Amino acid sequence: MSTKTPNEDDILRPIRHTSKKYYVMLAVSAVVFTAFLGLWMIQLAEGMAVTGLSDWGSGGGVTWGLYIGAFIWWVGIAHGGIILSAAVRLLGMERYMPVARLAEMLTLAGLSAAGFYIIVHMGRPDRMVTSVLGHYHITVHNSPLVWDVTVITAYFVMTATYLALTLRYDVTRLRDQLPNHFEPLYKLLTIGYSKKEDEVIERMVWWLALAIIIMAPLLLHGGVIPWLFALLPSYPGWFGAIQGPQFLTIALTSAISGVIILSYAFRKAYDWGHIITDDIFRGLTLWLGFFAMLFLWLQLQQIVSGTFHSTTDHAYATEAKLSHPIYIGSIAIVAAVLIYIFAQTVRKSLFSKRRSIVAAVAVLAATLAEKVFFVVEGLMYPTFSLYEATPGAYWPSVIEFVSVLGTIGMVVLFFLLVAKVVPVVELHAVEHLRGGHGHDHEPEKATEEVEA
Fold first, then answer.
1. 387 has pLDDT over 70
2. In terms of pTM, does the model score above 0.85?
3. Which tens digits make up the pLDDT trace of 152-166?
4. Torsion-angle region of residue 421: left (phi > 0), alpha (psi -120 to 50) or beta?
5. Which CATH code, of 3.40.50.2300, 3.60.10.10, 3.40.50.300, 1.20.1630.10, is assigned to 8-451?
6. What distances in angstroms separate CA 144 from CA 228, 229, 238, 285, 316, one per listed residue?
């Protein structure tokens, strides 16, 4: 139980103090991201053939692979992150206020990584202009890719606006304690600010949060992204109305895992045990278990419908899925995490922050593998095959594997750099904790919240 009272100095610590570990993290992340950029340059010079994604059928494999699987994964993490932050504001989940801004920033970072994957997979970056922007007025009506670009851009703008509005309050009140070399940025963030606008901004942020909560299941990871697959009847592994809720549960499961990891990293690095409390980790872990349960339940629905008197093509695709170790392994990992979370709710002594981190990393790895497998297997077993022979095999190339590490490095760089410019914990959260709510709550309250 934490007894230390949070203050402004705590949330300014990442800006004021730089350790050797910070520079090590910065260097490692930069090297990994640069390695990916270098390999991407090779791909630009040699073409998509270096990845094998240009082949299809018995002589190759698929045209979509790890790139698109990782794209879906990052979009899911991003959408789930802002949903978590919006829920904190809309539903009054004050316990999670200290991690709300981390979730918002995770959305911006995740969307950036996802958008980068679109550019990488198009083969030539100029196609974003010649194929999308140049013909947008025509393609927006019938191109799933343009739907995708549109909603991701809209979501990015909404999230950036959402974050910028909340930063105005913090930057204005902490300006004297922030570094002078970022003065132009701070002036831009607070242009035209007056104390009278605080109440107006609070209402604006509330409405933005409501719009985000509504858009997520209808247009984003519960809509447009799964529609890219669910509306294709010639691909039985994809087709079906269940893909919307399935994608949404994976998004929320992945996002909560990401927030758990970020929260632990900042707590440990800056001694924020009195801000990001054990109670927050208990609650986030319980929510992780709840959405993991929904993820497994929806997977079961697909397996049952694909094995019980289904059409021949659907049965064939389901059989291929159930016989593949990657799919079985992914489901087993999520199931093991769910069993642990259930056990630690029954026996409280089983809970620990490190176990929560292990669970979060395991879920992120499992959901990435499942999404890549979903994309690849869906293409491998169409209703009407383009080839008479057995479909070819697919295995990600070195460039594709490094792309995942590179985008993770990109996201880590984002947080390392942003944490040096603006507070990653809201001033409102510190003020709330200082008002007498900074101690850990009883563990039972986290259970009651999930049950409710």
1. no
2. yes
3. 888 888 888 888 888
4. alpha
5. 1.20.1630.10
6. 6, 10, 15, 35, 27
